[in-house]
Amino acid sequence: MSNILKKICEDKGKEIEILKNKCSLNTLKKLVSDKIEKRDFKNKAIDSVINKNNLIIGEIKKSSPSAGQIIKEYHPEEIAKTYERAGVGAISILTETNYFNGEIDHLSLIKQNTRIPILRKDFIIDEYQIFESKVYQADIILLIVSVLNDDQLKRFLKIAEDLQLDVIIETHDEEEVGRAMKLNYPIIGINNRNLKNLKTDVNNSVNLFTSISKDFTVIAESGIKSSLDIAMYNELGIFNFLIGESILKSDEYSAFIKTLLNNG
């Protein structure tokens, strides 16, 4: 772990300590309620492969270290409603504050305005964030293999499952894929963006997919820009995608999403 990723995680650690002083972990745990609606993602993703139907997780973010500011007038709930009408299977919302200008309360805001699963996209390095994700009504969390050791991955996965949160185990290289498979969790993401230098290569998912057992459902993440990319992945057997910037930079979100879903 180095460069931008290391800095993000260092700053995230400081942010979490401040949050713990405002609301302790024990207090946060008490806010977890059985009444929080759980929308199933895991089975949707698995079924998309079985049925060979494309499923897009549409990502919403105001800015990123690689792209700078993406949206000036940022109304995530309106974007989410447009995404849902266009046919995305789930929504990813960036909640990281310092580098992506995200806000955690956007999770519950979008939950109230949609009927599909919500992914909290953030750099989870502490169990505090998992309970926080549940309280703010996320359905899915992201666990990034490159920022967590194996013990943390196992422990965080267990906490997530106890809280009825689905998980995407995110990998970027062959070593991380091997570590992810040992967890025996069915959903593995392959990030085409190298989080250490922010370079993107859509062939990363292609190259790593062959080393993943068919027992796992793979999500290709980042850098997907056209129905040609989708078609290339479909030929391999990948039918789940996390797509953000190419949608947000398109002239018309709905038309672009439908093109990706129908022509891929």
Helices and strands, with pairings:
Elements: H1 3-22, H2 25-30, H3 42-50, E1 55-60, E2 63-64, E3 68-69, H4 76-86, E4 90-94, H5 105-113, E5 118-121, H6 127-135, E6 140-144, H7 150-162, E7 166-171, H8 174-182, E8 187-191, H9 203-209, E9 217-221, H10 227-236, E10 240-243, H11 245-248, H12 253-263
Parallel strand pairs: 1-4, 1-10, 4-5, 5-6, 6-7, 7-8, 8-9, 9-10
Antiparallel strand pairs: 2-3
Helix pairs in contact: 4-5, 4-12, 10-12
Describe the structure.
The protein is of the alpha/beta class and 264 residues long. It has a single domain (3-20, 54-263), classed as Aldolase class I (TIM Barrel, Alpha-Beta Barrel), CATH 3.20.20.70. It has twelve helices and ten strands. The chain has helices at residues 3-22, 25-30, 42-50, 76-86, 105-113, 127-135, 150-162, 174-182, 203-209, 227-236, 245-248, 253-263; strands at residues 55-60, 63-64, 68-69, 90-94, 118-121, 140-144, 166-171, 187-191, 217-221, 240-243. It has an eight-stranded parallel beta barrel, surrounded by six helices. Helix 4 (76-86) runs parallel beside helix 12 (253-263). The longest helix is centred in the first third of the chain and has 20 residues, at 3-22. The mean pLDDT is 94.
